[in-house]
Amino acid sequence: MNHESYIQSVCKDVFGTEPENTSIVERLMGGMSNYTYVIDVSGEKYTFRIPGKKAEKFVDRHQEKHHLELIKPLHLNNETVHLDTDTGVKIATYIAGDPLHTRSPYDYLDEAAAVLRTIHESDLVSDYDYNPFKRLAYYESHLKEYDHVHHERYHAYKETLEKHRPFLEQFPKTLTHGDSQISNFVITENGLRLMDWEFTGNNDPFYDIACFGNNDFDHAVALLPIYLKRTPNYEDYKRLYLWRTYQCLQWHNVALYKHYIGLSEALSIDFEKVGALYLDKAAALLAKLK
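RESULT FIELD:
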């Protein structure tokens, strides 16, 4: 069954509409894990997410459902209409706007900082911690299925992170988005909104600032003083650089797993090369800390 037929079938169950009343408007690009479409159901627009192959290896849908309920009072996300915790299929109201990656992020630093402070200062507490180091080990375990041996560079960078683990874990945790890269911010007529709460949990708030630099780490460096409302010190930058290094190792594992399950060929994306690029980014980050 192709995606359009699948979407029509699900929407018939959710909305009670006939297949001919549901159509795909466009596919939204961004991210490595999902197929997300804008759909029209009887004249109303929604977003429809179909998780990519083996996405359940990295996202717990029961946790996602918990977080979508938790963050409703923040009014930062579109409203979830349907979430199937077994399949990961999600339907949500559509919010018109432009993804931040289509604009200059530097023009929206004040708004992005305000959004992240809204989350971090909300006093909302998740039932789940993000547990970065435990999560990294879990992601590594998926590659053992394919007898993967990590490059010595990976082990060296991970050892550096482990050495700084007491430093990173000393800071108070808050609720964090967990994937606040610029492609998940949407510029709307009502201000900046933040979508895709699949990686939410209690964590160091600097983790979200580091995520903002996923496409270009300079974006995160520029965001930091705006977020802090002061000039960052060495400890602030160290914290930021280390979390971004961690993220590079995390997504390195995800990219390699996608390569092993055949998505490089299926999606015409060289995920093995993507994984190597994340190691290069980690190396550059750690070099600046010396």
